[in-house]
Amino acid sequence: MRELNVVGLDIDGKSVICESAESGEKFLLIPDGRLHAALRGDRVGSSKFQREAEDPDVLRPRDIQSRIRAGASPEQVAEAAGVDLARVERFAHPVLLERSRAAELATAAHPVLADGPTVMTLLETVSTVLISRGLDPDDTNWDAWRNEDGRWTVQLSWKAGRSDNVAHFRFSPGSHGGTVTPFDDSAAELVDPNFHRPPLRAVAPVPAAITAEAEPELPLEVAMPPAPAQPEPQEQEQEQTAKPARARRRKPEVPAWEDVLLGVRSGTQP
């Protein structure tokens, strides 16, 4: 096997001119998929890698890492590209470490509110909120991915009861840990300094018909007769004073028997 040294590109700019180290004979090398696979370290003699090198639809390592860095999982990339998961994981591992490191750095950043960055870090703020809600701050999952604009999005996921919750922040690395900005309502609620105060809600007035207790209506067959009208207090006093007056009247005197026979009244002069 002779050793060849690269001399340069051909006139067309697509072929590589090589020269033998022993005889000085020149050779023209046309790059193809097999050459690219060999430069990546793939086995050129393998039919699998030869098919991948010739197939333009197969993801390159750079494409795999770009998708992983953008937030996709190795399983999602492998399923979408129709390739083996082992091939994706080989190139995804360093990018997953990069995402994990970005999420760790974001927890040490300071949330930005309306009046500026807070003194507490994102991890301290979130832990305080979760503890106040009766949740375990260690039972959380942090993740991060890079957007198309180069900025990092940090995701916090936790479970409360049977519900799965997520909150997203925008992470900007910088001095003193950098800053994070809430990206959705869940994130804003976590870093809100007044999170322990329940929101005030306007309460509509309750109709009087609901507050008044309804009196049960009696059926017609058992309806009670109307109660007799009670006399006024003044009438009661007059009635009480009238009764003694009638009691003081004298009964009429009955004439004696002899008076009836003689035709005279008792107590009258003859």
UniProtKB/TrEMBL annotation:
The UniProt keywords, alphabetically, are: DNA-binding
What superkingdom does the record give? Bacteria
In this chain the DUF3071 domain maps to 1-171
| InterPro entries according to UniProt | DUF3071 (IPR021421), SepH-like (IPR047682)
A single MF term (Gene Ontology)? DNA binding
- Outline the segment boundaries, as ranges, of region: Disordered: 216-270
Output this protein's name: DNA-binding protein
